[in-house]
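Action item from last meeting closed. Structure (436 res):
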């Protein structure tokens, strides 16, 4: 049986974040958005592109592609995680999604404007691989760490992710900044970066695959039909969630503020490239700074949660996100964008890490496997991304200006903040009742 708080296991678990965060940084945050905007920009026709015969604004199309990918994941994960719990084989699913994501990134090496459909499909499949693997990764948290250690272990995972992704980003940065030194063009340097992400992702993922347990079966027998057993297990988890007053309140709050957080993270580079005309080198530098600041943010929020509690810290961070959205609307210079990026970096790492550990704390700590429970968390997050990305893309197509899309995100944060404050009041009430 796996012993909780084992440092070798925790380090191996965190290496999965090290491996796949390279996708998040290079593909969704820096080089790919800049490359995509550059090859599809055409001011004469309003930056519109043709995708399977239909016209889209270029950045709206990439928003829709990501939203569709996350919707597919949201529909698949409840089934897959229930099966993983039922059979105790969640590591196999981690491997499958990792291969899908890594190979899709590698295939982006061949992406050109003439193969837009192929590129967008690979872009979407890479997102499915990344997000699909992450739910099984998240579900290990209560299995490898005791309740008092989960904030710190969660922060460690994000810290490893930020460090690993920054290292690969710097390697890619050298190729993009000095392509002629390596006999490359600017375009081929970007394409090489996509290939490197796939290799990095797949290679380092085999560290956790070697060390982590495969998962514990959560079924009395294996005589039932696998799919049916998965749905039965998922139904049982849903019945348990409905009986948890804090978890029931936390999930809606998490949903609404995640609509804003995840969308901003996914569109920040496109915003800088399209609205402020920032060169690729500047964008990469800014995102690198965000990653480094995010490491401090994740650890800072972990420390603050010890003194003030998770929900109060989350409410404070969401308030800062609201100000960041308003700031984005009024940002007109590169310097202002850099300042805003620093603020976003600080609160980005903190809110992701603390959100995951807060959910983990609300779960029963004595269940044999947690993949199905974490499917609710991840499906909530994925549906939030679907709503956020579709809204962002739709507002841009409607108004012709991404600034209005950024401002619209304030609504999601305000609703999330109100729900967090309601959750805090419920927590205080329960705590007072237990001490009475």
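Sequence:
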């Amino acid at each position: 049986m796996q012993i909780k708080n084992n440092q070798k296991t925790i380090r191996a678990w965190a290496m999965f974040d090290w491996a796949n965060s390279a996708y998040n940084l290079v593909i969704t945050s820096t080089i790919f958005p800049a490359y995509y905007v550059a090859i599809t920009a055409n001011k004469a026709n309003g930056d519109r592109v043709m995708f399977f015969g239909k016209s889209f604004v270029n950045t709206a199309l990439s928003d829709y592609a990501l939203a569709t990918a996350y919707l597919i994941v949201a529909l698949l994960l409840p089934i897959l995680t229930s099966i993983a719990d039922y059979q105790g084989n969640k590591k196999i699913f981690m491997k499958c999604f990792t291969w899908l994501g890594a190979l899709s990134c590698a295939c982006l090496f061949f992406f050109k404007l003439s193969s837009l459909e192929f590129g967008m499909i690979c872009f979407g499949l890479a997102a499915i691989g990344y997000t699909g693997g992450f739910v099984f990764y998240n579900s290990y948290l209560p299995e490898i760490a005791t309740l008092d250690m989960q904030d710190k272990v969660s922060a460690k995972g994000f810290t490893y992710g930020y460090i690993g992704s920054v290292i690969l980003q710097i390697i890619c940065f050298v190729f993009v900044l000095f392509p002629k030194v390596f006999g490359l063009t600017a375009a081929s340097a970007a394409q090489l970066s996509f290939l490197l992400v796939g290799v990095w992702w797949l290679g380092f993922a085999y560290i956790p695959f070697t060390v982590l347990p495969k998962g514990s079966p959560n079924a009395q027998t294996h005589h039932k039909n696998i799919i049916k057993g998965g749905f039965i297990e998922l139904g049982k988890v849903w019945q348990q969630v409905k009986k948890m007053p804090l978890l029931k309140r936390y999930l809606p709050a998490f949903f609404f503020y995640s609509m804003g957080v995840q969308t901003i993270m996914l569109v920040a580079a496109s915003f800088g490239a399209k609205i402020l005309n920032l060169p690729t080198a500047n964008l990469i530098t800014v995102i690198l700074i965000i990653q480094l600041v995010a490491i401090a943010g994740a650890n800072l929020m972990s420390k603050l949660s010890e003194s003030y509690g998770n929900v109060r810290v989350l409410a404070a961070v969401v308030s800062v996100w609201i100000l960041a959205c308003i700031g984005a609307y009024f940002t007109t210079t590169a310097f202002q964008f850099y300042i805003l990026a620093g603020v976003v970096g600080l609160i980005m790492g903190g809110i992701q890490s603390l959100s995951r550990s807060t959910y983990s704390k609300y779960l029963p700590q004595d269940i044999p496997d947690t993949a199905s429970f974490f499917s609710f968390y991840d499906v909530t997050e994925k549906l939030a991304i679907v709503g956020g990305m579709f809204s962002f893309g739709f507002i841009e197509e409607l108004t012709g200006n991404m600034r209005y899309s950024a401002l619209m995100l304030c609504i999601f944060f305000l609703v999330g903040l109100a729900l967090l404050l309601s959750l805090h009041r419920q927590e205080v009430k329960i705590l007072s009742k237990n001490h009475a």
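Note appended to the action item: Residues 219-223 have pLDDT under 50 and may be disordered.
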